[in-house]
Amino acid sequence: MGYQLDFGALVQYLGLFFEGTAVTLGLTALASLIGTGLGIAGAAASRSRHIWVRRSMAFYVELIRNTPFIVQMFFIFFGLPSVGLRLSALQAAALAMIINLTAYEIEIIRAGLEAVPPGQNEAARSMGLHSLAVFGLIVLPQALANVYPALVGQITITMLESAVVSQIAVVDLTHVADLIQSRNFRSFETYLVITLAYLVLAVLLRRLLALAGRGLFAGRAP
Amino acid sequence: MTDFTLWDIARNLLLAGRWTLLLSAIAFAGGGFFGLVLLLIRIGTGKWLRRAVSLYVELFQSTPLLMQLFMVYFGLPRLGIDVSAWLAAAVCLTLYSSAFLTDIWRGAVEAIPRGQWDGSASLGLHYLAQLRLVILPQATRMAIPPTVGFLVQLVKSTALASIVGFHELTRTAQILTNATFQPFVIYGMVALIYFAICYPLTELSRRLERQLMTSAR
């Protein structure tokens, strides 16, 4: 075969590459922050005394976890405008990622809450803390420490799955790959380099979050 | 332009759902076969071979499936190897599922207590007989619930084949949307079809898991 690999044809697109990386990481960070906040609220709600609150949480979690992310995103971006909610591609991508990650985080954090011994709750209450303080100061930190590795895994998966947002023309790392290969006709080299870039990002993200976890949950992690 | 009734849309989507199921089945069967081969290498004695399998698993678990698909579908033709959307999707999803299944099954094998290996060795069984008669039967029981759980992930992953133009459920939805301008209804229906495929599997996996937990006590 007469094909010569030429990675030099990629160098001039370095600026574009960094822009795409910034969008991918930015979306992931946004989804992680909001998703974790909502995940905590949702996990607490899924242990509510009211059965319809528990049921609606379970419904949401199952609906999202049993449908593909790309279909959720298409529904938000293409489907919602017909009921009057028109979002830009970037907004739709962010919303889809938040909705998706939240469902997984609810499930993970709920498992973490269940693993905290009930004695912790009772002891904290007997010290006169009101229920919100018991949850926020005693139970939740232990629950998060329990499941932190699973949360890190899920956030990494969200980052990798965000490659799909390129399909509604969000200029993320994958979209940048498409742009580059359509200009230099070096699709194999371009996709190889971008794939490796994702690999590096995933490994770094996991390391960084593990490091943060060691600081956050010092002495608590099981 | 012909008018599509709601039933026409639903029927076309359900028919396209067969391709989603077929692609999932192929990827699961192929991935299961390669996954088993990789598992045997991964729990074998060759240090470098073990590392190579770990690297393989890491590569597939830490890069987007979409990129893997693009590499095969758009990248390989540049190197002179032509692939159809159908072949690219089948090959990619097979490799992808082999990596995940190997990792799941490795966990199950490693959960078997060391004493089972030692005990069966003391009975004079050689390596393959140990695996076949003692280790794998026990590991299989443990591996089934997460394997069914992975099947859900695999079915959802086949939706990405739509991006390279393979006519499964999601791609058909895009085509129907372009013809009928009813994205809300169509993507809603598509989500329901995926849910109808995946939710029973999720529930089955959960039930098997619970059974395993109670029988282990």
Question: How would you explain this protein's 3D organization?
Answer:
The complex is a heterodimer of chains A (222) and B (217). Chain A is mainly α and 222 residues long. Chain A has a single domain, classed as MetI-like (MetI-like fold, Orthogonal Bundle). Helices cover 75% and strands 0% of the residues of chain A. Chain A contains 8 helices and no strands. Chain B is flat and about 75 Å long. The N and C termini of chain B lie far apart (64 Å). The model of chain B has no long low-confidence stretch (mean pLDDT 93). Chain B is mostly helical and 217 residues long. Helices cover 82% and strands 0% of the residues of chain B. The longest helix of chain B has 37 residues. Chain B has a single domain, classed as Orthogonal Bundle (MetI-like fold). The interface between A and B is large, with 43 and 41 residues.
